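just leaving the lab so this will be short. what follows is a protein written twice so to speak, once as letters and once as structure tokens for the fold. can you read through it and tell me how you think this chain folds. anything you notice is useful, everything is just below:
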Amino acid sequence: MLVTWAYKARDTLVQRFDPRARLIFTACAMLSILQVWDLRWLAGWLAFTLLAYRSARLTWKETRRFWLVVLPLITFLVLITALTGRGGEEAYQVAHPWARLHLGPWVWAISVEQVVFALGQFARMLALATLGLLIPFTIHPAHYGVTFRGLGLNDKFAVATDLAFRLVPSVARDFQTTLDAQRARGYELERKGAGLVRQIRNLAPLIVPVTIQAILNGEDIIDAMDLRAFGARPRRTWIVELRYQRRDYLLMAVGVVVLALTIAAKLAGYGDFWVPPGWLPGP
């Protein structure tokens, strides 16, 4: 049985848009975010994505697992960037000392440019993560296939993409079910005094059945599609029919215009790396 993301129909502004229009706008927004280095622009995009997240009325309970994985990962990457200065060297040429971090025998000199670059990267990655979060949590699970079909993909790719979106929650459900079953039999995943290697080895009784179950579920889906002669006709019909509204055309137009303006601004020399003048040391 396939499991979907924690979708709830809320009749919000985000959910009123056609999913195809939202995907096109999201793609344009992501491409625009990836092209700029200016901290002000990235902060503006972050504020916009958080506003969209707020308007979708998603709760912490629904998205908690997503943020518990994404936020530590983003923070780790940003700290590595700030401490090592790796990545984005082409964005700044002159380094102004800001602080020195002493960790035992190691000393890291951190510049103002590294801090600003790290903040920009944090805003960029958090904005991209928020945009990506809105897709599975606000699109009806029954609309995935017809959405991708409406974007020009053929039926096979549309169904494959639909199944890919359902893979993570399905595997997570199977993992939790297997874990509960093993605990009911007295299995302890996190034993006291067990090291990291031992804890990884303890995952074997969980990974093996979950992997086998995923393979069996895939075989069941293949058999069900074969029994329904999927792919025998050049074009299949979908029970859900999506229709563009005026607001959908407006949303797609806004996305394309924003992307075009970002590219034009980038070619004109705007949106490059920027450091707040007040952060620079005096002469």
About this structure: The chain is about 65% helix and 5% strand. The chain has two domains: 19-139+243-277, 144-242.
